[in-house]
Amino acid sequence: MTATTAGLSYGRDNNKPWQESLEYYLQLPEEPADKFGALQNLTLVPDMQAVVMRFHVDL
Fold first, then answer.
1. Could you give phi then psi for residue 42, rounded to 5 degrees?
2. Domain of 24?
3. How far is residue 4 CA from its own chain's centroid?
4. pLDDT digits (tens, 9 = 90+) for 14-43
């Protein structure tokens, strides 16, 4: 399996610290070689991708 994450983060560290970030995640698993029967025509472990946005504030 190969997984990659790339992102940016920005924030302030003052009397009310905050931070925001935007990330992209990509996962590329490998199909098992020993599939049999009806499973041979199916994708058992599909690729996955996600975009994550976070915002954090200390109150």
1. -110, 150
2. 2-33+42-57
3. 8
4. 888 999 999 999 999 998 888 889 898 898
Token code pair at residue 32: 């098992």
Q: Where are the beta strands (DSSP E) in 1-59?
A: 2-12, 18-28, 48-57
Local structure of 21: helix, strand or coil: strand
CA dist 37 and 40 (Å) reads 6
Q: Helix (H, G, I), strand (E, B), or coil: what is residue 38?
A: helix
* pTM (global) more than 0.85: no
How many structural domains does the chain have?
Answer: 1
Measured CA to CA in angstroms, residue 56 lies from 7, 11, 23 at distances of 16, 9, 14
Centroid of chain to Cα 8: 14
